[in-house]
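Worked example

This section walks through a single chain of length 367. The input is the sequence exactly as stored; nothing has been trimmed or padded.
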Amino acid sequence: MNPPEERRSRTLATVVAASAAAALSHVRQGGIVTGLFLLPIVVITIVGVAMRGYSDPVFTVGFLDEQGGAEARALREALADEPTVRIRDYRDVAPMHAAVYRGRLHAGVVVPPDWTGAGDLEIHATAAGVGAIVVRAIAEARLARAVDPEATRVVPSRVHDGSREGSPPIGFQYTAPSNVVLFLMVSGLVSCTGVLFMRQQGIARRLVATPARTGELLMLVLVGPAQLMLGQATFLIVSTALAFQVPWGDPIAVVAITLALIAVALSLTLLMSTVFRTPQQAFSLAPLISIAVGMLGGCMWPLTIVPAWLRDLGHLFPTAWAMDGYLALVFEQAGWRDVLPEVAVLLVMAAVLGTVGAMRFRARLAD
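Given that input, the structure is written out below as tokens.
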């Protein structure tokens, strides 16, 4: 066997051994693995049911018409035409305000006597919950149409290039992709604990002392997390499609975005294994970092309801790009060509983070 063939054979043996060891480790750590697989399903179910993720109206809006004219009637009809809104009429502002305060209404719209279709309206809404924010966005879009009949009839859903529009992302169709993105980030950050345990127990120093190349060492530590993330993403996508009828769309595009997101998560595994010093530090900080990045990236609420500067800030993180891609597939029936920009950005982020991690990796193993 010549040297190149011998190296390939040794690399293959390393990957197979690492894969088997990782599978055994996942079986032994059943609690952690079960949490990464089942906890997202629990979150999707609770949030989706809370937002009535099926086809029923989601938001109840009070409507008080003090004008009694054609403009007010047109506005009411436009709001009632929104499939996610149920209208409840009021004759007095006091009970409507109380209903909003007590949570019986998501928002209340008051049309003043002198309203001509172009002026301001009084909208009662609490700051608690996503519902009030979405209702406010719907009302503003309907007001824009009342002023300009040629305006769009849907609430804009801004993607990073501002070129797409659609209904507000709500229900299971929103919570399913958001939890796929969020929990893959959690897996990526938590998986670095395997490398930290190796360093803590002295195994890493013995590995560095072997003739194994850096590439072989990288495969040794990344095969296990890659298996876990592939299984996790497949389980979440398939189970939400079957249980909640989430229309994930073009399979090729779904696979492309998911693999690009997993590449980012693996690069985080590699990088953070050189940043954290102990497994305990990783376990305590990884969930907090994941939640923060998820919030900025639109995993907790749609980026369409936040200020423009916050949307731009969110797109400094891979979560926002992954959410853009998934939501385009789920809500807009986009094809694989449409999500190539998101996939490309994710791969570039993975390459940058992975390169930095790889440059620091071997030296950190020897610590």
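What to look for: The two ends are 35 Å apart (CA to CA).
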